[in-house]
Amino acid sequence: MKAVRLYNVRLRLFRPVLHMLIIVCIFYVLYKLRHVTDLIPGVQLPIPVINYGETMLYAWIVAIIFVFIGIIKRLYELYKPVQKYFQTFSKVWIYWLITITFIAYFGQWFVFFFGISRFIILMGSFFTFFALFFFDQLWNYMEAYKHKNSTNKIIIIGSDTLDSYKAIEKIKKWFSFKTEFITSSDLGDIRLEEYFMVVAVGSFQKQFLQDIFEKVRFTHARFYHISEWFFLEDVVYSPENIDNIVALEYKHSMLDGWSIVFKRLFDLWFSFLAIVLFSPVMLLIAILIKLDSSGPVIYVQKRVWKRGNLFTFLKFRSMYTHLSVGDKYGGKEASNLYKNLIKSASNIREWVLPKIDNDPRVTRIGKFLRKTSLDELPQLFNVLWWTMSLVGPRPHLPDEVRNYETRQKRLFSIKPGITWYAQVFGRDNLDFEDEARLDLYYIQHRSIFLDMYILFATFGVVFKWK
Fold it and tell me: Can you give the pTM of this predicted structure?
């Protein structure tokens, strides 16, 4: 099911690329056509000086602008149908036409020395409207046909006191997916993660809705509620119009759709740049670790990932190898030592996340690496491998996660990060409950701008070490 959903998203990511290619092709054909002198039969029109390079540069610029405006105006939805497609498409086209005309006029003599043909602009915008509109109609038809024959399904949960099924019938017609209907009493052990969308219609107890959301929080399913507005815990509310019916979509984060794509691109770009910039530093650290103590340079460990799965976590080794926890390192002896340290007076932070003061297992270079957080640099490769993000909740050990309360397990709704919100507001001085509360706040409010703030603030926190 997950593979099918990712396949659908990737197809929709490809649609704006096709839009760009169509626009560029239209402007290329019009460039060739403008060199014909008898565009109007019997009327010989002079051929203006049109530069091919400038015209094609303009074509690519206007194609990118169309997609950019389309993303802003939600023409390219990744997970759901476009609201009022024709109105949305028309608005995008009008804004685009105004923008490209402005660029052509004010870019004359600066960017476009020979100028852009008015014929190409006028006819290009005209043919772009109809070409993209008919292309989208064909795309939507093929997508609807594929949905009817796919494994994606919608489940509608109706309350036992529901008076009218009008809303349910509209939902069935609005979406092209297979639809199932149950009442709240039939929910039981139904695996909601197997559905593409979950829609609750009618009045329910707050706890009932909270329980449904806890089940879909860690899945790719989207959860809508049509009726009363409940303030559930750790939820972002987004009003949605489904065939003139107002529904509230409950999400765990403001980051959705194209915002997630941009965050991923930001993570890739920043981590790759950081690896290039810090590669001499990482090489020096590797040499110092080898000189300081025997053993591998990189410490490899299993940590808890998104949705509670495990992933391979990397960091520079900061402990003596024979004292490091793990079968490949100190084994049972190191594990027993760690348990004894947790129970000792050296543990200055009890419960889920222990913190050992003056940890005897840490090497000389390891103390420096930990204070400066330089031991975290190998995690930039985790970001490139898509197992971590630059900013996200702290990745924890499986033994630590077993002690999580239900609310704290909501941290698994997104990927863990190299740095995190609580890192900026307390570093290692917070207890786990406060750290979890801050990270849950981050999940609800995360954005690329908030990530940039946390990244820059992290540098400030790290350089204040004593």
Answer: 0.79
**Among 62-66, 99-103, 340-344, which stretch is predicted with the lowest mean pLDDT?**
340-344
Q: What is the pLDDT of residues 227-268, one digit of tens each?
A: 766 678 888 888 877 767 778 888 888 888 888 889 999 999
Which of the residue ranges 146-150, 160-164, 212-216, 387-391 has the most confident prediction, judged by mean pLDDT? 387-391
Three-class SS of the chain: CHHHHHHHHHHHHHHHHHHHHHHHHHHHHHHHHHCCCCCECCECCCCCCCCHHHHHHHHHHHHHHHHHHHHHCCCCCCCCCCCCHHHHHHHHHHHHHHHHHHHHHHCECCCECCCCCHHHHHHHHHHHHHHHHHHHHHHHHHHHHHHHCCCCEEEEEECCCCCCCHHHHHHHHHCCCEEEEEEHHHCCCCCHHHCCEEEEECCCCHHHHHHHHHHHCCCCCEEEEECCCCCCCCCEEEEEEECCEEEEEEECCCCCCHHHHHHHHHHHHHHHHHHHHHHHHHHHHHHHHHHHCCCCCEEEEEEECHHHCEEEEEEECCECHHHCCCCCCCHHHHHHHHHHHHHCCCEEECCCCCEECCCCCECHHHHHHHHHCHHHCCHHHHHHCCCCEEECCCCCCHHHHCCCCCCHHHHHHCCCEEECHHHHHCCCCCCHHHHHHHHHHHHHHCCHHHHHHHHHHHHHHHCCCC
Domains of the chain, with CATH numbers?
Answer: 2-148 (no CATH), 153-251 (3.40.50.150), 258-462 (no CATH)
> pLDDT (tens digit, 9 = 90+) per residue, 200-214?
888 888 888 888 888
